[in-house]
User: Fold this.
Amino acid sequence: MIYKNEQINSKTFKEEVYKSINDYFKENHFSKHANHQMYIKLLIGFTWWILSFILLFTVSTTKLGFFGVYTFHLFSQLFIMLNISHDANHNSIFKNKKLNHWLSYTFDLCGVNSYMWRELHHAQHHYCINISGEDENLVARGLFRFTKKAKFKFFHKFQHIYFFILYGLFSADYVLAKDFECFFLPYTIYLKEKKHPIMEYIKLFLFKFCYIGYMILLPVFYLHYSFVFIIGIFFICHFMIGIIGGTVIQITHPLRANEFPESKKEYDNFVFHVFATTSDYSEKSTIANWFFGGLHLHVIHHLSPAICHTHYAVLTERIKLVAEKHKVQYKSNRTLFAAVKEHYYHLKNLSKNNIKVKYSE
Assistant:
């Protein structure tokens, strides 16, 4: 399929894509921000978090029962981060940016520093998708080889086997290590040159203490569970949500069908870049639409991140028609399992040094 201006007018394609998106809101007199489905998600997320938190500290139960409630509460955090925090940090829930800013702290409520998340996500992913050396999502501390350009290490030969295990550490790593690493031991050029406001350092420690306080210290000192028991279920539960969260996020870019450009200049415009480097999955899944925060409809997200994700399903159908008209490939895997399979084979292809990556048809 075509991504460069060889047979079609790239400017026309870009204009038609965004016209199709904008016309949806104009024709239906809709706001680009939260609709009724998003308000329901807000209600579900906060109700789920509050009730499960209250249950943790008010219901007398066995250790097994406490583990169940603890798990239930951690899944409320996953729901909030995927469906609320992500949108809030893109200023897409409300027209009022102050309201979005306050909601962005739901990341901090769940143990992830919202300021650093924006620094990593906006500047080092959204505008440099799948570019080795620029896209922070491809760094992964060198534990994975996502592109042919990445240096091969001996353990990469097993990466298609261990990726689920390391994805399970995704959540706990963010809470306990990655945020601190980004502030104090920056590993990208952007972070090394960035000067963070003093207040952000204060917020980092304050919110981390609050999170560790209510997730670990309170159960130990208020409910008198052993420290070992609480630490154990903390990591078990974070491993569960880490597998889900890490997988949901990663199976849209490092896939066999996607391209890995050398630079931002490789395509005529950013719209081509998005279509070349991004794949959707589970388009028709009700479960995905309610729980994945629109991350499974990733093409439209990269095209218009300031639009609330509850509009993505309809908008995806519209941009698919424009892409078909201009013979630009829109890539999608029918199910989550199919996307995981594509991700698995991409990792397997790159588990050998200096091999040519095989792309799916």
